[in-house]
Design a protein that fits this description.
17 helices; two-stranded antiparallel ribbon; alpha/beta; globular
């Protein structure tokens, strides 16, 4: 993509973007302009020291583990109940002596101590981001070896930070985005501030998480050292420079993301294009304003997609074009999506043997529903099952491979829409993500200008439906977008900070203004109705187009919103991947 085309889409939230997409006018300018000059400074007085206390280690002699729990990682925390971390270190990586209290130890790093393939100098640091639905990650309050044993046995150092999230806000404090990723970055900076007294390699920090956690580690991995986060980091007294005045970094080496629910700025649109256009019940039932809204969102997404300038590995420009039926179900991007679906099903056939039993999930815990199981004796039986309602898969028994021909057939068989129209930025602010980008306790907000554009363009048409409410109109979005958070930033700024493509695509102002992680592993369950398949595919493409060579990607057939893996278990596979991409 020609870099000069950055002028076409100045920001996902900017006026040029909306005008270029032909969706509606906007009011926000570039969210990146003036970032550094507007960054606030941290307080001159600090409530907590950033120095790590090397005299306060505890020791699990049974398992040979040193650990510390509850270390506040910023100087001026907004929430000490969340902004603290725990660190767990294999015993070989420290040289320790018992303190006079009989319970704690003073320890220094032992760079020559070894566990497996690692030493106290080279051991990677892994950080979990367990924030489903962008919820908070509670810090550890007590020691449990079972929670960290698999990682420590492999020679990794495990750091567990508390992180604020959409559900940790109080009546006086909003913990909505971007505070979750801000806290994560602050914890990483704390480790680098103290790297002279801690074992392990801060050059090899690897994040891992699923769903909202996968989304936040994706954002963190794409936005290393982005000035968008500086005002937030400074406000809580994060370590910006080391003791010698050298600038510190919050960039990471690797990201493991399972089912990342990300790219929220366009998620309403992609959801309706990918899945909603094939549904006709609930909010997509004929005769409702939301059915018309679904179609309009679906039509708007290709305009956005085509401006991204994504290319496949062969350099082919991926675009959507109009089709004789459906909404833009043609073009090189459509063909690429079909190739991804085909690869997923062929991997499934390669990885498994028949007879094969498919077990569906039951209802939520306590519902009494246990799901059901169906056994398919042969591949042909399974393919016939997939083609029950329409023929969209062709099977070649001589090669044991398939060809997928229809997105509609795939969606109706395997990936039906599980969310209502306005799946992320709800028209009544009722979706989880309205809280993620809200204004604190019980104050959900609209956040997506592309969605606002569709509403603005079509609200006169929607008003002719009996189920329309004027409260759903564009003015509600405008008022939410204008509000500023405690750091003085509006929704445009916050949304850019939480959009990985903002940092990865030349369509946005943040392109090449951050340090992007060099190693990525992305896994999704292809059946998940939680987000469009295009979400993770576009992150993959953007990373590859950016020049990131190490992206291990798979969308796993037969699995939904889970820590999907083609074979084996997620923790073992993650640990093996860390070994393959880090120095040892």
């Amino acid at each position: 993509m020609d870099i000069n085309r950055r002028t076409v889409i100045r920001s996902a939230t900017g006026v040029a973007a909306l005008a270029a997409f032909g969706i509606a006018e906007g009011s926000a300018g570039s969210a990146f302009a003036g970032t550094s000059s507007s960054s606030s400074s941290s307080s001159t007085s600090s409530a907590y020291s950033l120095e790590f206390d090397s005299t306060a280690w505890s020791y699990d002699s049974t398992n040979d583990v040193y650990y510390q729990i509850g270390k506040v990682y910023v100087a001026n925390p907004a929430a000490t109940d969340y902004e603290n971390l725990s660190i767990y270190v294999p015993g070989a990586y420290l040289t320790a002596t018992a303190n006079s209290d009989g319970t704690t130890y003073t320890a220094t790093a032992n760079p020559k101590g070894t566990v497996g393939d690692y030493s106290g100098r080279t051991a990677p640091i892994v950080i979990p981001v367990n924030t489903p639905g962008y919820a908070a990650q509670k810090p550890a309050t007590s020691y449990s070896y079972s929670n960290v044993s698999q990682y420590l046995k492999a020679g990794l150092i495990y750091v567990w930070p508390g992180l604020r999230g959409r559900d940790s806000s109080t009546s006086t404090r909003s913990d909505a985005a971007p505070w979750g990723v801000t806290d994560l970055k602050a914890a990483i900076r704390f480790l680098r501030y103290n790297e002279s007294v801690l074992p392990g390699s801060t050059d090899d920090v690897v994040l891992f998480g699923m769903s909202g956690g996968g989304a936040q580690d994706t954002v963190a991995g794409a936005s290393g050292d982005s000035p968008l986060f500086y005002p937030y980091l400074r406000s809580i007294g994060a370590a910006m420079k080391d003791a010698k005045g050298r600038t510190l970094s919050d960039a990471v080496a690797g990201v493991m993301a399972w089912c990342p629910i990300t790219s929220l700025h366009e998620a309403n649109l992609s959801y309706e294009w990918n899945m909603g256009q094939f549904a006709s019940t609930g909010t997509r039932a004929s005769g409702t304003w939301t059915s018309a809204y679904s179609t309009d969102l679906a039509k708007a997404w290709p305009k956005y997609l085509n401006r991204l300038g994504l290319r496949d590995e062969q350099g082919r420009h991926l675009k959507l074009t109009e089709s004789s039926s459906g909404v833009y179900l043609a073009g090189s991007y459509y063909d690429h999506l079909i190739e991804v679906i085909t690869t997923s099903l062929n991997n499934f056939l390669s990885d498994n043997t028949f007879p094969y039993t498919v077990t569906t999930q039951g209802g939520p815990p306590g519902s009494g529903s246990t799901g059901s199981s169906t056994t398919y004796e042969t591949v042909a039986d399974y393919i016939a099952h997939l083609n029950t309602n329409s023929t969209w898969v062709t099977y070649d028994s001589t090669t044991n491979t398939v060809t997928v021909s229809s997105l509609e057939g795939f969606v109706n068989s395997q990936k039906t829409a599980s969310k209502p129209v306005g799946a992320f930025d709800g028209y009544s602010r009722g979706q989880t993500e309205n809280t993620v980008l809200g204004r604190g306790l019980d104050a959900p907000s609209h956040f997506a200008p592309l969605t606002r554009g569709v509403i603005k363009t079509n609200q006169n048409k929607y008003a002719t439906y009996s189920d329309w409410d004027s409260a759903y109109g564009a003015s509600a979005y405008d008022s939410d977008f204008a509000r500023k958070d405690s750091v003085g930033k509006n929704m445009a700024w916050r949304l850019d900070a939480y959009n990985p493509l903002y940092f990865l695509s030349p369509a946005f102002d943040g392109y090449r203004r951050s340090q992007v992680a060099p190693h990525w592993r992305i896994r999704t369950g292809i059946m998940q109705g939680d987000t469009a398949s295009t979400t993770e595919i576009n992150v993959l493409l953007a990373l590859q187009n950016y020049g990131i060579r190490n992206v291990d990607f798979a969308t796993v057939w037969g699995q939904g919103h889970t820590q999907a893996e083609r074979t084996g278990d997620s923790a073992t596979n993650f640990i093996s991947w860390v070994k393959s991409v880090t120095k040892n």
